[in-house]
Amino acid sequence: MTYHDNHQEHHITIPDHAYIKIGTLNNILNDLAQFRGKSKEEIIQELF
């Protein structure tokens, strides 16, 4: 997945599985939060 924000792009690899492990999801959310300068909780609120 590629995320674009203010002329920056960030690539995140997301497994193509029916289910992903909690640790994998946690790592994806932490990576995205760090890139966006937000907390993981803020990212979760935006998604859900």
Write structural notes for this entry.
It is a single chain. The protein is of the alpha+beta class and 48 residues long. The protein has one domain (2-47). Helix content is 48%, strand content 17%. The protein contains 2 helices and 2 strands; from the N terminus they run E-E-H-H. A two-stranded antiparallel ribbon has the order 1-2. Helix 1 (22-36) packs across helix 2 (40-47). The model has no long low-confidence stretch (mean pLDDT 88).
Task: Provide the descriptors you would attach to this structure in a database record.
48 residues; alpha+beta; two-stranded antiparallel ribbon; 48% helix
List the helices and strands and how they pair.
Blueprint: E1 2-5, E2 8-11, H1 22-36, H2 40-47
Antiparallel strand pairs: 1-2
Helix pairs in contact: 1-2
Summarize the structure.
The protein has one domain. The protein contains 2 helices and 2 strands. It has helices spanning 22-36, 40-47; strands at 2-5, 8-11.
- Biggest sheet strand order reads 1-2
Number of domains: 1
Spans where pLDDT lies below 50 across 5 or more residues: none
Query: What share of residues are in beta strands?
Result: 15-25%
Q: Summarize the helix and strand pattern as letters.
A: EEHH
The total of helices stands at 2
Distance between the termini: 18 Å
What overall form do the CA principal axes indicate?
globular
The total beta strand count reads 2
Largest sheet: 2 strands, antiparallel
Q: Average pLDDT across residues?
A: 88
Radius of gyration, taken over Cα atoms and rounded to an integer in Å: 11 Å
Structural class: alpha+beta
Helix content: 40-55%
